[in-house]
């Protein structure tokens, strides 16, 4: 555990912050290193990933950053396929400086053009038989990697009663939750999503809050693990991120803000429960936006009143970017929940 | 294997006669299987088969080593060949390869159920041999010699100190942070009490999911030892036992688990290469002995063999 030189293992390890008497935050610098490193380690050990080979993935987020850093350090070629609507020039330039090739395909509909991205990825895979696709959406290695986070939380907290985290690929929350629930079968798992993400039955649409939610459904999202789902709009997430900095000195991204907002409410609602919340990344990438007053002032309807409690929905529906809603999921499958919704 | 740091005290050369110590005795304790056993990653990312032993101080093996001028080590009972090998390796470790002696072993530990009778004989023999040269070996040296003598060993050289021990390498993967908490263990034998030939067992092949789960169990065991929490320890043991069911199933394990749950026990542990099952209770808890009696009766009624109540790490004088 200690005294060993391994930069990326250290960088993937969260710092724990106590936000209240019963709430511990696992604040990551770059959480996606955990699955990226595990996926590459296992693929190397199994011979699926050969020295100097070509790695591909479709991502516009921090998983791409994690892969870029590891590929640079381990001598792999890396191609990241994204959509022009999803990646800003600064982030693209940063990935390219690390050595990654970034292909940003056209996105005329503005929905991320996932089919187009997958076509592009398949073309690359066909052209190079040694090419390795990390498959963060459906590889079980994504969620298996989070045993490290579960171990880390257990060493620090012992029994965990409630786990709160964002959901995008499902890896972090469903992985950590699977392992913790094996230990503690009564563990309550609370997922944090955003309006117009399709993961928990909302219709697809334009999402302002990036880094959580999805317009496609990854296999690593395990609905039957989830007790409760919250949809947080961009504005409450931004304000919660600001509060993390002001009240706790934690400089985290807006998805961490969304997770903290929900977790603080959960911890207040269940004062006898030990609550853990996963905060996926730091605020640096958002310095010119979420942490920039001019950028914020230009947002329609900003500032809004920060909701202190979520609105409980009986029917799943989208809301505005200033709202926060929740729905009691009760460890059901997506189909089961959707069936009850259509009856109404 | 001999290094200056391994020997706590430099031995004198073997005397050619005279009054110096010529007879050494050594004891070693049994165990009641393991609290956790699986595959674990070290700091370098390498995987090791390792375990956390549940020590059982009441059952012991005692060895006596008498230095002789013979050129070989002789052992009684004669079939304790691993113990004799351990004595030879100890002599080599002490710097006297090929020295002779008479080793005798008297053990109260039943064979073939997961009580670790073989390792206890080996460890007692190592300690007796070293004692005949006025040397007290460290637990790390004893463990390495034991593994060299018998291929796979357990962690009883560490007595009540909880360690995650690589049983085929003789090294500690993690010191869990002190002694185990005081426990009551209601132990019994599954599978009709039939012994298992541990030498014929092939090592379990664990899935990626099991290996990742072991990581979390290790964290839980470490937390449990550090905070002296028998319930967290029992939880880690139960999950390890459930994984073991996929590899070396014990009949009616789920009945034992049900008895444990119904009686508010901390958990259930097994001998991962034996027939033992143990239901774990918090010895410091009020009413623990009544719980143990109720559990023992339930286990007997269901048909488990040789039901016994063991005290683990009880403080002296209590």
Key features?
heterodimer, A: 344 residues, alpha/beta, Rossmann fold, 2 domains, four-stranded parallel β-sheet, B: 318 residues, alpha+beta, Ribosomal Protein S5, domain 2, Alpha-Beta Plaits, four-stranded mixed β-sheet, four-stranded antiparallel β-sheet, 32% helix, globular, disordered N terminus, Threonine kinase (chain B), Ribosomal_Su5_D2-typ_SF (chain B)
Report on the architecture of this protein.
The complex is a heterodimer of chains A (344) and B (318). Chain A has 344 residues and is α/β, with parallel strands linked by helices. In chain A, 38% of the residues lie in helices and 17% in strands. Chain A contains 12 helices and 12 strands. In chain A, the strands form 2 sheets. An 8-stranded mixed sheet of chain A has the order 1-2-10-7-8-9-12-11, with helices on both faces. In chain A, α2 packs across α3. Chain B has 318 residues and is α+β, with helices and mostly antiparallel strands. Chain B is built from 7 helices and 10 strands. Chain B has a 4-stranded mixed sheet with strand order 1-2-4-3. In chain B, strands 8-9-7-10 form a 4-stranded antiparallel sheet. In chain B, β5 and β6 form a beta hairpin. Chains A and B meet through α6, α7 and α8 of A and α4 and α5 of B.
């Amino acid at each position: 555990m200690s005294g060993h030189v391994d930069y990326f293992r250290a960088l993937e390890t969260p710092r724990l912050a106590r936000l209240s008497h019963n709430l511990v935050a696992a604040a990551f610098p770059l959480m996606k290193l955990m699955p990226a490193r595990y996926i590459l380690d296992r693929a190397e050990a199994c011979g699926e990933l050969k020295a100097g080979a070509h790695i591909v993935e479709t991502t516009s987020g921090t998983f791409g950053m994690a892969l870029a850093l590891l590929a640079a350090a381990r001598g792999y070629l890396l191609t990241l396929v994204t959509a022009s609507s999803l990646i800003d020039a600064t982030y693209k330039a940063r990935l390219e400086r690390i050595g990654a090739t970034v292909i940003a395909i056209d996105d005329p509909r503005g929905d991320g053009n996932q089919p187009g991205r997958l076509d592009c990825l398949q073309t690359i895979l066909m052209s190079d038989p040694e090419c390795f696709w990390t498959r963060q959406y459906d590889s079980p290695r994504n969620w298996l990697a989070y045993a490290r986070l579960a171990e880390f939380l257990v060493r620090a907290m012992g029994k965990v009663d409630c786990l709160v985290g964002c959901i995008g690929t499902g890896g972090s929350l469903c992985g950590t939750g699977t392992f913790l629930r094996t230990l503690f079968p009564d563990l309550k798992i609370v997922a944090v999503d955003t309006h117009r993400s399709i993961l928990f039955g909302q219709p697809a649409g334009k999402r302002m809050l990036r880094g959580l939610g999805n317009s496609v459904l990854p296999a690593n999202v395990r609905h039957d693990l989830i007790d409760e789902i919250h949809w947080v709009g961009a504005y409450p997430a931004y304000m919660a991120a600001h509060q993390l900095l002001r009240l706790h000195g934690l400089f985290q991204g807006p998805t961490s803000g969304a997770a903290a907002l929900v977790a603080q409410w959960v911890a207040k609602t269940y004062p006898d429960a030990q609550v853990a919340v996963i905060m996926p990344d730091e605020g640096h990438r958002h310095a010119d936006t979420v942490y920039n007053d001019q950028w914020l002032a230009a947002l329609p309807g900003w500032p809004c009143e920060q909701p202190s409690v979520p609105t409980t929905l009986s029917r799943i529906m989208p809301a505005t970017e200033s709202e926060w809603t929740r729905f009691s999921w009760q460890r059901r499958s997506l189909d089961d929940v959707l069936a009850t919704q259509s009856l109404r | 294997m001999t290094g200056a740091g391994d020997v706590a005290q430099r031995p004198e050369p073997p005397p050619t006669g005279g009054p110096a110590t010529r007879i050494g005795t050594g004891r070693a304790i049994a165990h009641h299987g393991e609290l956790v056993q699986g595959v674990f990653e070290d700091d370098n990312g390498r995987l090791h088969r390792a375990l956390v032993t549940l020590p059982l101080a009441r059952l012991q093996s005692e060895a006596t080593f008498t230095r002789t001028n013979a050129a070989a080590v002789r052992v009684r009972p004669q079939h304790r060949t691993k113990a004799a090998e351990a004595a030879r390796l100890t002599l080599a470790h002490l710097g006297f390869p090929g020295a002779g002696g008479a080793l005798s072993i008297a053990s109260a530990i039943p064979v073939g159920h997961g009580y670790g009778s073989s390792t206890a004989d080996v460890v007692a023999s190592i300690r007796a041999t070293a004692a005949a040269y006025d040397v007290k070996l460290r637990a790390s040296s004893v463990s390495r010699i034991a593994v060299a003598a018998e291929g796979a060993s357990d962690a009883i050289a560490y007595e009540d100190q909880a360690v995650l021990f690589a049983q085929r390498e003789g090294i500690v993967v993690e010191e869990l942070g002190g002694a185990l908490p005081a426990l009551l263990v209601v132990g019994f034998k599954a599978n009709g009490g039939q012994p298992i030939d541990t030498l014929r067992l092939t090592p379990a092949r664990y899935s990626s999911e099991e290996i990742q789960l072991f990581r979390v169990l290790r964290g839980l065991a470490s937390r449990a030892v550090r905070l002296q929490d028998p319930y967290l320890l029992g939880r880690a043991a139960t999950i390890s036992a459930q994984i073991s069911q996929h590899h070396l199933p014990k009949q009616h394990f789920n009945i034992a688990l049900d008895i444990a749950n119904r009686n508010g026990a901390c958990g259930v542990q097994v001998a991962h290469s034996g027939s033992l099952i143990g239901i774990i209770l918090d010895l410091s808890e009020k009413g623990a002995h009544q719980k143990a009696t109720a559990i023992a009766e339930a286990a007997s009624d269901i048909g488990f063999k040789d039901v016994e109540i063991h005290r683990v790490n009880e403080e002296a004088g209590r």
